[in-house]
């Protein structure tokens, strides 16, 4: 049995604390994630939403690898040229709990991207119609 240090908190306990922080204001997770690698890992697991803007669009594949359990993605971009490509990236990412994708500032739905989402069984079964 591994000897535990005085003051050791298992990750499960930290996760509950971080979930409470997230419920109050998800932005608090950013501050907590800077404390240690352990806190970064735990905060990545409890983050539920991801906001994607023009500046973060190139980082989307990395963000989707980092936040595997997100439930919603908000895409707020003025770059309409490759919105299908963005949705296709999401469909290929392996995000397990995705329930909603919200689009701001686009007039034409990303049809090819939606086809890619529909072919991903993990995402298709979780997405809610709205």
The helical percent reads 40-55%
Determine the N-to-C terminus distance: 50 Å
Strand order of the largest sheet: 1-2-3
**Number of β-strand runs:** 3
Class by SSE composition: mainly alpha
Average of pLDDT? 81
What best-fitting shape do the alpha-carbon axes yield?
elongated
InterPro entries: F-box-like_dom_sf (IPR036047), F-box_dom (IPR001810)
Protein name: F-box domain-containing protein
Domain F-box: 9-48
Pfam families: F-box (PF00646)
Description of the molecule:
This protein is mainly alpha-helical and 130 residues long. The chain has 7 helices and 3 strands. The chain has helices at 11-24, 28-33, 37-46, 60-66, 83-92, 111-119, 121-126; strands at residues 49-53, 72-76, 100-104. It has a 3-stranded parallel beta sheet, with no helix packed on it. α5 runs parallel beside α6.
List keywords for this structure.
three-stranded parallel beta sheet; 12% strand; 130 residues; mainly alpha; single chain
